[in-house]
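sorry to bug you again but im stuck and you know this stuff better than me. theres a chain ive been looking at and ive put its sequence and its fold in token form underneath. id like you to explain what the token line says about the fold, in plain words if possible. anything you notice is useful, everything is just below.
___
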Amino acid sequence: MEDFDLIDVLDKREGSFYEDSLNMDTVENILKYSCQVANFKEVSKMYREVSYDQIAYWSEDSHSPIYDHPEKYSDLDIENLTFLQKKISTAIDLYTQMLVQGNHFDRKYLEDQLGRL
């Protein structure tokens, strides 16, 4: 399989990846395609990776586009986005463990892991 670099894809994408619109036809087509080629666990992993790549900073030459726009994303914004991404990642992991692997968690454990949202 060919290496995939999300940041490279975002740089080459027509239109803004961060635009404030929702095309339900696009959503439906992507969902249909995803369900045909990947199982739920793989799709969950994909969402975790995409959310991480949106806030990642590997080096000055390799980082999420949010670091290129200090006028739009302050240090506090980036800190909060990182916090939220960790919550998203943990929630997806727990959700997948329960749904796919049949793990059982009590509410206190889930709240300890996620905090009260």
